[in-house]
Write a structure and sequence with these properties.
The chain is α+β, with helices and mostly antiparallel strands and about 100 residues long. The protein has 2 helices and 4 strands; from the N terminus they run ββαββα. Helix content is about 35%, strand content about 10%. It binds zinc ion (2 copies). The site of one zinc ion has 8 residues, from loops.
Length: about 100
Amino acid sequence: MNEYPVKKCKVCEVDFAPKNRLKIYCSKECEKKAQKMRYHENYIKRPAFTDKKCAMCGADYKGARNQLFCSDKCRKKKRVIDQTKYRNKILGRFPAGKQLIEF
Ligand SMILES: [Zn+2]
Ligand SMILES: [Zn+2]
């Protein structure tokens, strides 16, 4: 008795009865294989560097895909701002609308 319709494994193309509706592979081995394939594909497709805009100073630069800032300086600056905002929120010292921080 199966609650879910039989599916075809995307890796080995064997028909299997999924134990839950999210399952798309027949076995853990196939799941791992698919993961590896996906990782490999992404790795090949991904350019080493891509055009980015710094989230801090807005400068155009070339950086890694997961990079947010043009430099260490901007990364640290952003962290200080975040920490200050967080602290202001926690302390609740400043009335709403007056939490602007000058840098
Ligand atoms: Zn399979
Ligand atoms: Zn920057």
